[in-house]
Amino acid sequence: MNALHDGWLDIGRITDIPRQGARVIAAPGGNIAVFRTVDDEVFALADRCPHRGGPLSQGIVHGRRVACPLHDWKIGLDTGHAVAPDEGCAARYPVRVDNGLVRLRLTPDEGCPST
Amino acid sequence: MSKPKLVVVGNGMAGMRTVEELLKLAPDLYDITVFGEEPHPNYNRILLSPVLAGEQTLEGIVLNPRDWYAGHGIDLHTGSPVVKIDRRQRQVETTDGARSGYDRLLLATGSRPFILPIPGADLEGVLGFRDIADVEAMIAAAARHRQAVVIGGGLLGLEAANGLKLRGMEVSVVHIGPWLMERQLDEPAARLLQQSLEARGLKFLLQRQTEALVGGESGRVCAVRFRDGGEIPADLVVMAVGIRPNTALAESAGLHCNRGIVVNDTLQTVTDPRIYAVGECASHRGVAYGLVAPLFEQARVAANHLAEFGIGRYTGSMTSTKLKVTGIDLFSAGNFMGGEGCEEIVFQDAGLGSYKKLVLKDNRLVGSVLYGDTLDGAWYFELMRDGTDVSAYRDRLMFGRQHLGDSGHGDEKSRVMSLPDSAEICGCNGVCKGAIVAAIRAKKLFTLDEVRAHTKASSSCGSCTGLVETLLAATAGGDYSTAPSRKPMCGCTGHTHDEVRAAIVANGLKSMPEAMRFLDWKTPDGCPKCRPALNYYLLCAWPGEYQDDAQSRFINERAHGNIQKDGSFSVVPRIWGGVVTPRELHAIANVAEKFGVPEMKITGGQRIDLFGVKKADLPAVWHDLSAAGFVSGHAYGKALRTVKTCVGSQWCRFGTQDSTGLGVKLEQATWGSWMPHKFKMAVSGCPRNCAEATIKDLGVVCVESGYELHVGGNGGIKVRVTDLLCHVKTEAEVIEYANAFIQLYREEAHYLERTAPWVERVGLAHIKARVVEDADNRRALAERFRRSQESAQIDPWKARADGAEQHEFIPLAELV
Ligand code: SRM
Ligand SMILES: Cc1cc2nc3c(=O)[nH]c(=O)nc-3n(C[C@H](O)[C@H](O)[C@H](O)COP(=O)(O)OP(=O)(O)OC[C@H]3O[C@@H](n4cnc5c(N)ncnc54)[C@H](O)[C@@H]3O)c2cc1C
Ligand code: SF4
Ligand code: FES
Question: Where are the domains of chain A?
């Protein structure tokens, strides 16, 4: 794993993640789910559903949302927030794609109290 | 760039529902302006009756408070009737001469009470029963006067009479017909209703025609005079003899009206496609509706069209009626009077004050009147709407759904309204009655889906759906939107399951993007409801050809195990017919030890479950199992699950046939097949039925003379005993019939519909006609099944143990 400057880690190719799917990154602070939407947008969230900790990486990705596999909460991939009327959020991680390479930072964005 | 302008005339239930639906679909498409004649924001007109009866307050029935309009940037003008539409300039004009331009115009002007054209109709103290002003006037009159006369013994008239009585007035109901509510009730039911209203102190004058209203010295009405000469005192007269669609404005603008503004299936007026009409003012296929459920359906379609999706079509509704007089339960729907070609089933118990009538035509329910006990109204309505063939349980129909073996929540249902607030309604999500009722009130919920979204009740196993619907009906008002005439697959489309299935086959649609494009899906890539369904429909339609879409499968089917609450998986190898050898048991035990499986259990399906396997270990576990000869048990799939067997003639002193051997053969013929839902079989060696064959999707009961085939059983949430399909003589026939039955189910059922509800929906006769009576069709079905099995019986476990889909099981990166 190449650690680049600014803490961006090179974690693999976008083509390693199935479209409308996700892969897991085993990280020191817990698993991170990296999602790829039908339009090849990439998002990263803590792999823990705000409801009861379900692994979001295992859910069905549709539009910019994922449906948690345990009790079907819908979580916004871009916001990390549960879709109303459910409430709660999964921490977002900075992620970007450079020339087909997916890069991730392990410090979550602000705004979602980590649990 | 400025947005197109949408002007809405009529700030009532249908108009605002359309705006709400539009905002959901396309929140920013239009600049919206709403004109309402009444000085109030939109309120729930249905609940005016409970307000009059003192059971609700005016504040409590507001649906969209003013800040809702403000929050959505809607320009609201209350107390501001539109008096003119200038179609050339595309402007509307209000009483004060102000003009407002539109690109699209929505007319939702409702209707007006019909006032009998008799002398005295314009006297003070003569009212209709339509809006808040009418109710306020009635409440004020009740405080100062004694004698009320309600003209009209229909739904509205009786609700008005009941309310006025509760407010302390002496009330007489004058009705021209031979019995009350003749448009909803037959005579016996109406008599029971009249008796119970009389017991509350109401007086009735039937078959009386009002000739004039007589004014007193003050200029206020003081009496009602009849054609036969009689007269009764009255200082308040409520006319509830009918409503007329409010079309004056539309007519003056030259829009074609014929008992309502005439609209097409997208709710556009036939005269001017820029102008839409919804609600009671609209006439669709010759019908102007007077209840909210159809209006809400219209609203959905009109919004869909306004949002430029343009795929929804409104094709008319079937309606049902309930009377909102607390303590009186009455339900009516469809053709309740019967007539040529109809048969009637009637139950009457005067002592209990209970009356039920069901009208059947060609073995389908077409009408119903219930008085006293209306719990099954919703179910009858569903049967009518779906045109279900009821011949298989016609003898039990009258006794309600509970008597069809629906042991689920039968008893609670009848007690639901008297339950304490703390009573748990939804066992899956732990939601109590109080929470559901509070959410319906506070959030103005009208539909089951809304209650599901806001409370989670009924959103999991669904067994409490009936209870939630009862609560909804009782809380939200007489007629919430229970019954869309056609249920779209999900929010992504206006098409039903059947339409989608038919389109896939008829148009040769062979991939999910192709199907979504062809059928005008509203979302770019569907949702967790439609994608798995489409994936299955495509797989079933094009066996061997369609490329399965793993990303459209629920995780269990994608990872070929059941996900557990901690994210690990369970592994259930197939154990043919429940028969094991010591060698196989050793092999399973070795796997469990090698991978540190935390728990093993004998399942209810005669096999062994290994719990808590880590996802990354799955391929290796499967490798070892597969080396020992095991294949996937599909305990995770909408697929063939188990074939339970009993010992049968091999050992049992009662066994008539080799039930164990037959079970193994059945399982070997059918394993691997994907289905609309899970599918379970059993073979019992004699009618003692130790394998519980009569609660399986397909059960075989061996008898001396051969084999009985039973179908449509379910042992889960709602226990349903199978129906006897037929009797056959040989094992080969059992397999052929089973294959044919499975294929019919695969080709016709909706995704996530088990055989029990499917059999109830289409009727056993339908299945017998295709599988039993038509031998050619049976063979063709069985052949199609065998062909689809050629590509289905590839063990997914072995494939993955050999390296397929590796990305599913290993992390993309390990940073620890
Ligand atoms: C393991 C087992 C319980 C056991 O320890 O015995 C089991 C476990 C589950 N059942 Fe079951 N059912 C098991 C036999 C049954 C039976 C009995 C039978 O098959 O003879 C029934 C009633 C019979 C029937 O289906 O008609 C049964 C009716 C259900 C239902 C209700 C189905 C219904 O139509 O009403 C569900 C919910 C669903 O499918 O949506 C369900 C769902 C489940 C799920 C898959 C819940 C889930 O989605 O996670 C459980 C998975 C546990 C796991 O992680 O492995 N399970 N389940 C049994 C596995 C049998 C097997 O060898 O494959
Ligand atoms: C007392 C009562 C009880 C009922 N109970 C039930 C029941 O139990 N179940 C059921 O399903 N239905 C019931 N209904 C019927 C139900 O309320 C109506 O079907 C529904 O309200 C019709 O909706 P709408 O939008 O078409 O008309 P409305 O809700 O009447 O809305 C039309 C609005 O347009 C306004 N308007 C008219 N002309 C103009 C104009 N030119 N400019 C501006 N504004 C204008 C009107 O003032 C009104 O506010 C009941 C009705 C009443 C009166
Ligand atoms: S195994 Fe079946 S009955 Fe037991 S908790 Fe799970 S779903 Fe419920
Ligand atoms: S844990 Fe995600 S929905 Fe329950």
Answer: 4-104
